[in-house]
Specification:
Elements lengths: L2 E4 L3 E6 L8 E3 L14 E6 L3 E7 L2 E10 L1
Parallel strand pairs: 1-6
Antiparallel strand pairs: 2-4, 3-5, 5-6
């Protein structure tokens, strides 16, 4: 989904179901999945409350938002 709400301490897994590499990165640079190859996953733990807008560094038209409570 493009937007989700989670509790602080939640681990969010990003799975690349595409055919090219992806790199999900917070707009403010506070976290990143690093390069995620097709068929692979990366997990980010959100420890602090806040709203985090993210983009795919390789495909900046792909974006979303995670709200941590």
């Amino acid at each position: 989904p493009n937007r989700i709400k989670v509790k602080a301490g939640t681990k969010v897994t990003f799975t690349n179901k595409g055919t090219t590499n992806h790199n999900v990165t917070a707009e403010d640079g506070s976290w990143s999945t690093g390069e995620v190859k097709p068929g692979k996953s990366a997990t980010v733990t959100f420890k602090k409350a806040g709203t985090f807008t993210f983009i795919d560094k390789d495909h900046p038209w792909s974006y979303g938002q995670i709200t941590v409570r």
